[in-house]
């Protein structure tokens, strides 16, 4: 779990605040000591992963201690991914501005009192489809992050349902 915390560049105190836990509890988890399910759920929600993934991360942390150069390589790969994402967003906005500019400067002056309305609508809808398709690729509304959130939500609901059924 320490690796997860360091990837986010959080101190133990910051993680404790975000998860509403004591710093001592965070230290116990990082040492691999046993903790309650509520603690695991709280930490998993802060890291936006499932409790099973968190348990796996804790187990991996017990097996292999974290070295500083590992954290540095993770930081570099995260920076590279962030840079690529920012570039793709920048290209999206540039393409959108370009297509809107073409439509306004070249297409609208050819309106001719409704005579060319059909072709203008087709061009507008084509440009809109291009922008919407590229936005879907760039912003990934149903990407990995969304998928992990949904899985985590379903697992939490299932555990709550099973807990409420066992209490009856």
UniProtKB/TrEMBL annotation:
<keyword id="KW-1133">Transmembrane helix</keyword>
<dbReference type="Pfam" id="PF01381">
    <property type="entry name" value="HTH_3"/>
</dbReference>
<dbReference type="GO" id="GO:0003677">
    <property type="term" value="F:DNA binding"/>
</dbReference>
<dbReference type="InterPro" id="IPR001387">
    <property type="entry name" value="Cro/C1-type_HTH"/>
</dbReference>
<feature type="domain" description="HTH cro/C1-type">
    <location>
        <begin position="1"/>
        <end position="54"/>
    </location>
</feature>
<dbReference type="InterPro" id="IPR025698">
    <property type="entry name" value="2TM_dom"/>
</dbReference>
<feature type="transmembrane region" description="Helical">
    <location>
        <begin position="91"/>
        <end position="111"/>
    </location>
</feature>
<protein>
    <submittedName>
        <fullName>Helix-turn-helix domain-containing protein</fullName>
    </submittedName>
</protein>
<keyword id="KW-0472">Membrane</keyword>
<dbReference type="Pfam" id="PF13239">
    <property type="entry name" value="2TM"/>
</dbReference>
<feature type="transmembrane region" description="Helical">
    <location>
        <begin position="117"/>
        <end position="139"/>
    </location>
</feature>
<keyword id="KW-0812">Transmembrane</keyword>
<dbReference type="InterPro" id="IPR010982">
    <property type="entry name" value="Lambda_DNA-bd_dom_sf"/>
</dbReference>
């Amino acid at each position: 779990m320490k690796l997860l915390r360091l990837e986010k560049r959080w101190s133990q105190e910051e993680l404790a605040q975000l998860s509403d836990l004591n710093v001592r509890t965070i230290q116990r988890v990082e040492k691999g000591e046993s903790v309650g399910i509520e603690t695991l759920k709280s930490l998993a929600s802060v890291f936006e992963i499932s409790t099973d993934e968190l348990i796996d991360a804790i187990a991996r942390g017990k097996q292999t201690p974290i070295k500083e150069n590992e954290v540095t390589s993770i930081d570099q790969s995260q920076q590279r991914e962030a840079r690529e994402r920012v570039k793709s967003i920048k290209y999206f906005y540039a393409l959108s501005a370009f297509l809107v500019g073409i439509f306004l400067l070249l297409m609208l002056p050819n309106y001719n009192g409704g005579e060319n309305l059909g072709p203008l609508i087709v061009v507008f809808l084509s440009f809109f489809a291009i922008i919407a398709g590229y936005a879907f690729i760039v912003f990934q509304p149903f990407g990995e992050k969304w998928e992990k959130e949904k899985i985590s939500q379903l697992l939490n609901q299932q555990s709550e349902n099973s807990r409420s059924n066992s209490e009856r």
